From TrEMBL:
Organism from which the protein derives: Bacteroides gallinaceum
Stored Gene3D superfamilies: 3.50.50.100
Residue intervals of the External alternative NADH-ubiquinone oxidoreductase-like C-terminal domain: 358-413
GO molecular function: oxidoreductase activity
Keyword terms, alphabetized: FAD, Flavoprotein, NAD, Oxidoreductase, Transit peptide
Signal peptide: none
Pfam families according to UniProt: NDH2_C, Pyr_redox_2
Keyword Amino-acid biosynthesis among UniProt keywords: no
Family statement drawn from the similarity comment of this UniProt entry: Belongs to the NADH dehydrogenase family.
InterPro entries, alphabetized: FAD/NAD-bd_sf, FAD/NAD-binding_dom, NDH-2, NDH2-like_C
Protein name (database record): NADH:ubiquinone reductase (non-electrogenic)
The enzyme's E.C. designation: 1.6.5.9
């Protein structure tokens, strides 16, 4: 396999790795300019991470929060190309990126591959826990939840039933709060209808956070209110509890206690996706790639990094230790970098990145959310309504917006969720064998 894209004469080639918020924004901004743009992503679709938890809790179908890249670019000019592949190595001396589908030359390389779940070196937890960072992981979690509910009504022992109906969520950030709230609503509104012969009080949801509060990126008031909302919904909020391991269907905590469960959800932090041949001196905490105020990677000419994958130290005076890993940071960096690439070609002075904080928010459940803006903090129904509007506007595609809105309206009016299907995907034999061959290949020079 190869890219099979001829370089257009007179145009500089920009290769973008990752089609998340930042990479997609940059590619769209460069469309129709004097650049040839190639977007490389291991998936053939853009996903909307803020709503992945709703797929995991059977609130939305996967296609409602995903959008094919080729459909996005079909209305663009022929200077934007998509290739499905995984970036492996950079050869900066030759301006070459090695991917799982071959080598591609670049004039400018933009790394925007985002993050993956961070297990902080605990390999056993990494093997046993259920992450929820991608669409496929969310679908796997949905299958696990629904399968455990089915097994709980036919299992032989009370101990097994207890393990099947205890759900442990590790991580008190926005994702942890949102999935815990969604599961609590599932417990109160869905299980009594679907499982009338089950005592829904047996379903226990635990949200475990190692620090002393939830939503550490928000104010203390928002943290306290989020905890209050969850406790009112029946979630067991466990603060100051560190998870050490998971053995014999038990989550083991540092204080010597344990929680039996067969649904062990890990949303405790992220780590930047890595790529080969980047100097160790250019890697910061959490595996994030160090960049200057113009998102240039330290030590690599013509290589830039944006979004969650990068860390800008001392580049933005208001964020000397790096920006928060939020969608708005990636979008703003993608837009500015596209403008700066055009300025470079025109011989103009580059503009340094300055993050404009548009606020943060997290939803807990129906009519329950917290939201913070520059001068306004709100909680409850109004924050929940703002959350709905902001996220609905951010979803790509008119069809997707309508699907999500209709699903939300249906759920609000009926207290029901319509996508409680257990579906296990099976890859074609030819695809599985090809992926094995690719994984065995040594991607050297």
């Amino acid at each position: 396999m190869s890219f099979n894209i001829a370089k257009e004469s007179g145009k500089k080639r920009v290769v973008v790795v990752g089609g998340g918020f930042g990479g997609l924004k940059l590619a769209n901004e460069l469309s129709g300019s004097d650049f040839q743009v190639i977007l490389v992503d291991k998936n053939n679709y853009h996903q909307f991470p803020p709503l992945i938890y709703q797929v995991a809790s059977a609130g939305l179908e996967p296609s409602s929060i995903s959008f094919p890249f080729r459909k996005i670019f079909s209305k663009k000019k022929k200077d934007v190309y998509f290739r499905m592949g995984e970036a492996r190595f950079i050869y900066p001396d030759r301006n070459i990126l090695q991917t799982s589908i071959g080598k591609v030359e670049y004039d400018y390389l933009i790394l925007a591959a985002g993050t993956t779940s961070n297990f902080f070196g605990n390999k056993h937890i990494e093997e046993e826990a259920i992450p929820m960072k991608t669409l496929s992981e969310a679908m796997g979690l949905r299958n696990a939840l629904l399968s455990n509910f089915e097994r709980s009504v036919t299992c032989a022992t009370e101990q097994e039933r207890r393990e099947l109906l205890n759900i442990v969520v590790v991580g008190g950030g926005a994702t942890g709060v949102e999935i815990a709230g969604a599961l609590a609503e599932m417990k109160h509104y869905v299980l009594p209808k679907d499982y009338p012969d089950m005592d829904n009080n047996l379903l226990q949801i635990y949200l475990i956070e190692a620090t002393d509060r939830l939503l550490s990126g928000m104010s203390m008031d928002s943290s306290r209110k989020a905890a209050e909302f969850l406790q009112e919904m029946g979630v067991n909020v466990c603060l100051g509890k560190k998870v050490l391991d998971y053995q014999d269907h038990e989550v083991l905590l540092e204080d010597g206690t344990s929680v039996p469960t067969r649904t062990f959800i890990w949303v405790s932090g992220v780590r930047a996706n890595s790529i080969g041949n980047i100097p160790e001196t250019s890697i910061g905490r959490g595996g994030r790639i160090k960049v200057d105020a113009f998102n240039r990677v330290e030590g690599l000419p013509n290589v830039f990094c944006i979004g969650d994958q990068c860390i800008m130290l001392n580049g933005d005076s208001e964020y000397p230790n790096g920006h928060p890993q939020l969608a708005q940071v990636a979008i703003q960096q993608g837009k500015l970098l596209a403008d700066n690439l055009k300025r470079m070609e025109a011989g103009q002075e580059l503009k340094p990145f300055r993050y404009r904080n548009l606020g943060s928010m997290a939803t807990v459940g129906r009519n329950k959310a917290v939201a913070e803006f520059s001068k306004v903090k709100t909680q409850g129904w109004f924050a929940w309504f703002l959350w709905l509007v902001v996220h609905l506007r951010s979803i790509l595609g008119v069809r997707n917006k309508i699907n999500v809105l209709l699903n939300w309206m249906w759920s609000y009016l009926t207290y029901d969720r319509s996508f409680r299907l257990i579906v296990y995907a099976r890859k074609a034999k030819e695809v599985v064998e090809r992926e094995k061959r690719e994984a065995e290949v040594h991607w050297g020079e």
